[in-house]
Amino acid sequence: MFDLSTRELVVSILQVILAISLIAIVLLQSGKRSGISGAIAGGADTFLSKNQARTLDAKLSKFTKWVAILFIVLTLVLMLIR
Fold first, then answer.
1. Angle formed by the axes of helices 56-81 and 6-28, to 10°?
2. 58: Cβ–Cβ under 8 A, 6 or more apart, which residues?
3. Are 22 and 71 in contact (CB under 8 A)?
4. CB 5 within 8 A of CB 43
5. pLDDT of 27-74, one tens digit each?
6. Predicted TM-score (pTM) of this structure
7. Residues 62, 68, 69, 75: what is their CA dihedral angle, to the nearest 10 degrees?
């Protein structure tokens, strides 16, 4: 029926793992909207907003970019293998 080579199988499995992890990482991130409190307070710099680069959301955002790039590269590799 289907004749998958070992390379195609390995890349396909990696792509499924990356897809599931990408979905999980995106769901773990909190929303960027601040709601009514952001509208009332405005964009004031607080102590917490100055240290945003160290938060879990910032790390998840950076990790999301790398996983998405790897997913796209694996998709192109899979297309070229077939």
1. 160
2. 52
3. yes
4. no
5. 988 876 655 665 565 555 555 555 666 788 888 889 999 999 999 999
6. 0.67
7. 170
State the SS3 of 3-70.
CCCHHHHHHHHHHHHHHHHHHHHHHHCCCCCCHHHHHHHCCCCCHHHHCHHHCHHHHHHHHHHHHHHH
What are the Cα distances from residue 58, in Å, to 25, 38, 55, 61? 12, 19, 5, 5
- CA torsion 6-66-64-37 (nearest 10°) is -170
Residue with tokens 């077939």: 82
Render the burial of 30-50: b for 16+ CB within 10 Å, e for the rest: eeeeeeeeeeeeeeeeeeeee
Two tokens at 24?
Answer: 């999980």
Q: What is the DSSP letter of 79?
A: H
